[in-house]
Queue: 2 jobs
Job 1
Amino acid sequence: MDKPQTDFETVLASVTAPTDAFAAPKSFPVDRLRLDLAERMDLMEQDWRRLEVLPQNALHQSYDWCDAWYKAHDNPALLVRGRLDGRTVLILPLEVVRETLGLVARFPGGRFNNINSGLLDDDFRYLDGEAVQAIAARLRRLLKGRVDLLALETVPLIWRDIAHPLTGLAAIENANRTFQLPLLQSFEQTLAQIHAKRRRKKFRVQERRLAEKGGYEYVVAGNESERRALLELFFEQKAARFRLQGLPDVFQAPRTKTFFRLLTQVATRRHDTPLELHAIRLKGDFEGQIAAISGLSRMGDHVICQFGSIDDTLAPEASPGELLFWLMIERACRNGAALFDFGVGDQPYKRSWCTVETVTHDLLLPITAKGRAMIWMRAASIRAKRAIKRNDALYTWLQHLRARRQPA
């Protein structure tokens, strides 16, 4: 067993140490846990799908999400599996990427993930500090010679009132927050959390303005062909929007587009879907044209907005993007969802809708000496990002610089 954490971890920026909030009500039998690297996803699909529906587990580690990412990218996959008396209680789907100093194992999806967790069974929950260090030692042995650093990024230390069992690892607070709106028993109750009277007035104004131009239709793509058509239009709208703002297009890379295209091929299971396309289609003056598009994912009662776009040339005075959020949230309430997630990144429109702001952390485990140096670099980078985001002028200048350097 490795020795307990040293001063190395405690001096990192915003490192979170275990507190009484994570006190274990019972001991996890860590001596009976067996860790290995599974050869292929499909060989443990049954266990994977059993775990992915548990409320403490993030949609971005679901089978379909990871499968699409692996198929769209050439990065080596590492599938860490933990079994307790033969029963799979832990899956960490990872990909290997190269950073400045060495190789990192991280969750597939990268910047397109929101909240991450890994796949954790109910049995894999109550870990004291000694158990976490024992698991860390085994992970080091398992990943030695493959990567320099294990980085479980954007993990909430507590999610859905459940503490993450690997909280005892070095934890650097992520530079970005995520934003959620709890969905209550009715849409009316949900709106009451966020100034219902003002919201309803704004909605009526939006509908009236669109009615003056001939009206609109709320569209939810019903099959793969419709999803694909809206996705391709989203890529066009988003690219135009980024060009207008002088910002880099994060969806430009061919592999990124392939990833989302693969997601549109996955059939919806009741309400669960890795990617569902929603849109505002105009009538009258702009007959058949799409003013706004959003991509939603859902697993269980958790809905996540993955992306959105608008066409600035179509009825901008009616704020069709804002109208689309109203309609999507109303539909999610009607379909029994409990949480509408606006995802990573602080934006005024998110704060106008959300009552919950979630802090996430990057859980880090150095495998080599390079990995320890990489943690220091990450800590410095996060401090720099926070400072830049507090300076609007500097942040805007850097975004424009990134856009100019992006390949055409």
Job 2
Amino acid sequence: MTQAQGQAGSGLAARLSAIDHRIADAARLAGRDPAEISRIVVTKFHPSSLVRELHELGVRDVGENRQQELSSKTAELTDLDLRWHFIGQAQTNKAGAIRRSADAVHSVDRDRLADALHRAADGDDLLDVLVQVNLTDDHGRGGVAPAEAASLAEHIMTLPSLRLRGVMAVAPLDEEPASAFARLHSIAESVRAVEPSATWMSAGMTGDFVEAIEAGATHLRIGSAITGPRPDRG
């Protein structure tokens, strides 16, 4: 290892530790056990070598936004014990590739996508999925309308190769995160009425994970605050 590589690794460890301490502090302030919160490190545009470094630091949950990157990294890192979370918008024609690489898909926002993921099942394997909810007024954004979340959950429950885990959302830029996540918490309750074991609430990124924890988030999606700036893609 070169001196530069060692310094980079040390910086990664320091950032990871700092975020984990902040998560633990926020959980305790909210009266929650930090152990019930999963921290997903989003490695978008970073090389597989960074994921390997994260694994050496104890990271086991990794998130990707793009199918091509997910497929490439999982193929390169088959020797590592990792849980891969797909958190980006998914096209139905890529459902098979996503299913082959992901352990959990956080962004199921329509019946057709759920159907495509189900059709891509291999044998009797189960895929964890979450209903993505659109908390904005922009219908072009990813996610199902809040009023339709329970209906989508009911549809997912008819597909035996999918395991409904809960809900996911991104806080709108024009709303206080605490307010947005409070709405998501209410929507999560409607989904749990469909499937009581669907207890996951995937919410919170670098700038708003404290508010997400206060609202009951179980899975946080944190990227550059841990990984550092994304590489220049030219």
